[in-house]
Amino acid sequence: MNFITTGRLEDLLNDLAAKSQLIAPVREGDRCFYRPVASAGQIEWEFGKPTLPIKEYFFPATERLLEIHPVERKNGGGGVRDYQVFETLPAAEQVIFGVRPCDARGLRALDALFLNKEPADPYYARRRERTTLIGVACETLMDSCFCTTMGGAPDERRDLDILLHRSEDGFIADPVTDQGARLLTDLALEPWEGDLPDYDRPVGWVLPEKKVMLDYFDDRYWRSMAERCMSCRLCAYACPTCRCFDVRDVRLPSVTGEIAFERIRFWDSCARPGYRMIAGGHNPRAEKGERLRNRLMCKIFYYEDQCGEVGCTGCGRCVDVCPVNIDIMEVMRFFAEKQGAAT
Amino acid sequence: MMDKITQIREKVGELLASGEIDCFIGYEVGPSGRTRPVFVREAEHADRLIWGQACTHNLTRYLPELVDPAAGEEGSGRIGILVKPCDSRAIPVHLAERQYARENIYLLGVTCEGMREGAGYTADLDGELQPRCLECELSDPVLFDALIGEPVVRSNGPVDQDLETLEQVGAADRLSFWLQQFDRCIRCYACRQACPMCQCPTCLFERDDALWSSPAHRLAEKRAFHLGRAYHLAGRCVECDACQQACPMDIPIRMLNQKLAEVIQERFEHRAGYEPGASPLVTILRGEEVVG
Predict the structure, then answer these.
(1) How far is CA B3 from the centre of its chain?
(2) Which residue among A52, A62, A319 places its CB closest to the CB of B216?
(3) Assembly ipTM
(4) B194 at the A interface (CB within 8 A)?
(5) What mean pLDDT do residues A164-190 have?
(6) Is A4 helix (H, G, I), strand (E, B) or coil?
(7) CB contact under 8 A, B31 and A231
(8) What is the per-residue pLDDT for B137?
(9) Which of B193, B212, B243 should be substituted to probe chain A, the one whose Cβ sees the most A Cβ atoms within 10 Å?
(10) Å from B115 to nearest chain A CA?
(11) What DSSP string runs through A105-137?
C-alpha cells in the first residue's frame, strides 16, 4: 500500500481525464451525481452517497444496439429497398473515481447476468473491459446503509481496481487488481506502513430465509405495504443492480429524408403496472402488492437463484429516494421477525 | 381543546367504527421516522394517524384508484381522506372530471401551518417552509365534510422569485436553463405518479405505438415529456407541488406549472380547484367559442 497526497491524486486524475473519459462525483445543487469531468477541479470531494449509482456507465438508461439503414439493392430491385444492420459498440476507455464499495459490488451482480450468462452482452462487456474503478472507502455511514447485512463493508476492496482510504492530507492507496497497480507504479509513491482507518459499520441483521417469505407469499402484508406505492420507477432506476430493460426500433431523425432506424434498449421497471402484461391482456402482477413482492423477492432470492449473485448490495438508495417511504429494510425485518417467532 | 392529532384519530375511529367509511387515507410515521401515506381500515388502527409539517404528500392522488363504486355491496363504498387546504383543490377537479362521485368520499379537512422542505424524506424536520406554503392563500380546505383545527389567517405575500427572475432573461438563455434541468430527468415518472391530476390509463409518453415520442432517455424525449405534461396540466394543476417534492433530480417542475397557471388565470380567469362544481376549463365555452 502507498500514500498519495491529494495534490498527486489530482495530477493522476487530470492525466487520466486527458487520456480517457473520467467520471467522478460532481455537485449539482444539493445533490451529487457521477458525471463525466474534464479535470479534477470539477470533482466534489465530500460526495457522501451520490443520488444515483455508477450503473448508467455500464448499462445506460438508453443504449443504441444497432442502426438500420437502407442500401442500394444489387441487381436492381424494382424500387424495393434493402436494409442493412450496423452494429454500434461503445469504444471509449473510462475511469470512474469515487466509487463506493456497494456500487462496485453492484457490478458484480450485473456481471452475473451480462457477462457470465451465455451469450455475454457485448455492449456491457465492452464497457466493463474498458473501465477502471477507483473506489473510496465510506467514512460516513448513512441511515439507509445496510451493506454489512448483504455481506459487504464500507471498506470492501474486492470489486474495485484501487481502493483509497482517506487519511490526513491525502489517501492510502490499496491496489486491488493489476490494472489498478499499473496506474500507481509510475508515480513512485511513498509506501504506507501505518494502520488503515477504522470505519463505522452498519449494524447488520439476519435476512429472512426464502421459505419464510414463501410461506407469506399471499399474505396481506404485501398489499398493505404496497398500497402507498405510486408505481413510479425510482427504486429500480436508483438501484445499482436493477437491470430490466425493453427494446424498441425507433426511426432516426433525418434531414435527407432517409428512412433509417435505430434499435434501442432502455431501462424498465417491474414497478410499472404494465411490466408483466402478456398477449391477450392478462397481467399476472396487476396489483401493487404483487409487484412489490416481486421486486423484493428478486433482490434477495430470485436473482441469486437464476444468476448466482444476490441482487441487493445494501446501498439503501431505494430507501433514500422513495417518495412514500417504502423501505426494503423494514420489509426484510418484518419477515425476519416472523422467522424468529416461528423458531 | 384537543390537539389536531387526537381529534383526527377520534374522528377517524368513529367514522370507521360506524361503517360510514371503509378506509381512511392519512399519514403515519414509519419505523425510520419518516412521514408517509397510510391506509387505515380498522377503527383500532386510527391511532397510527399523525399530523404535522412533514405531511407533504398529496393523498388525493390515491382516490381515483381506490374509490370503487362497486365496493358498496360489501361496505359503504366510501373512502375517507385527510385533506389539507392545498391538496383539497384536487377534489373539485377530480369531481369535474368524473373520477369518482362526491358521495363516495369523506373529506376530513385539516388546517395547515405549512410544510417543511425535506418533508417525507427525513426524520428530523428543520427545513424551511416549502415555496407553495409561503404563497398559500387558503385558510381552510375548499371542500370538506368536517374540519380539524381553526381556519388559519394567512398573511403571506408572494415570496418565491424564481419564476420572475427567469422571465427576465432572454428566450435563448431560458431555453438553455430548461434543457439543463430536463437533461437531469431519468424518466422515473415519480412526478407524474405523485400527481393527483395525472390519471390517464396510458400516458401519452408511454404508448407503445407513439409515433413522435420515443421511450429513449434522451434530451428531446425528456423535453417533450416535461413540456407535454405541463400543457396537459394547464388549467388542471392545483399547485400542490407533489411532482417537485417527488423528483429525485430536483427539476423545478413547479415553475412550469406556475407559469401556465398564471397564463390560465390571466386569459380565462380560471384557477383550478377553487370553485366546487366548476366544469373542466377546456369544456367551458365563452364568447366567440360558442357556436351558433
Answers:
(1) 25
(2) A62
(3) 0.93
(4) yes
(5) 93
(6) strand
(7) no
(8) 87
(9) B193
(10) 15
(11) HHHHHHHHHHTTSSSP-HHHHHHHHTEEEEEE-
A51 CB neighbours in chain B (<8 A) are 248-249
pLDDT tens for each residue of B102-140? 999 999 999 999 999 999 998 888 888 999 998 888 999
Rounded to whole angstroms, how far apart are CA atoms B254 and B230? 10
Angstroms from B98 CA to nearest CA on chain A: 21
CB pair distance less than 8 Å for B187 and A330 = no
pLDDT over threshold 60, residue B72: no
As a residue count, chain A comes to 343
Listing from the earlier edge strand, what are the strands of the sheet with A131-136? A31-37, A21-28, A94-99, A131-136, A162-167, A170-175, A2-5, A190-191
Output the pLDDT for position B291.
Answer: 76
Higher pLDDT, B281 or A341: B281
Nearest CB partner across the interface for A250, out of B37, B61, B214 = B214
DSSP A174-213: EE-SHHHHHHHHTT-PEE--SPPPP---PPP-PPPPHHHH
**For residue B123, what pLDDT is reported?**
83
For residue A231, how many other CB atoms are within 10 A of its CB? 19
Give the cell for residue A216.
Answer: 407469506
Compute CA distances A316 → A53, A108, A147, A235, B50, whole Å.
11, 17, 8, 10, 26
CB contact under 8 A, B37 and A228: yes
Q: How many other CB atoms are found less than 10 A from the CB of residue B238?
A: 28
Please tell me if residue B39 touches chain A, with a CB cutoff of 8 Å.
yes
Please give the grid coordinates belonging to residue B142: 375548499
What local confidence, expressed as pLDDT, does residue A343 receive?
Answer: 64
Q: Kindly state the percentage of chain A with pLDDT values over 90.
A: 80
Q: For chains A and B, count residue pairs whose Cβ atoms are closer than 8 Å.
A: 90
Tell me the pLDDT of chain A averaged across its residues. Answer: 93
Amino acid at A196: L
Query: What integer pLDDT is reported at residue B227 of this predicted model?
Result: 96
- The Cα–Cα gap between A293 and A315 comes to 19
B218 to chain A, any CB pair closer than 8 A? The answer is yes
Cβ of residue B72 closer than 8 Å to a chain A Cβ: no
Which has more confidence, B48 or B209?
B48
Whether B39 and A248 lie within 8 Å, measured CB to CB: no
B39, B188, B250 ranked by CB distance to A30: nearest: B250
Q: State how far residue B157 is from chain A, nearest Cα, in angstroms.
A: 26
Q: Nearest CA to CA, how far is A236 from chain B (Å)?
A: 9
Distances (CA, A) of B87 to A58, B72, B133, B153: 41, 26, 12, 18
User: CA–CA separation, A312 vs A239, rounded Å?
Assistant: 8
User: Is the minimum CB–CB distance between B200 and chain A shorter than 8 Å?
Assistant: no
- Dist CA B105 CA B146 (whole Å): 12
- For the record, the C-alpha cell of B71 comes out as 365496493
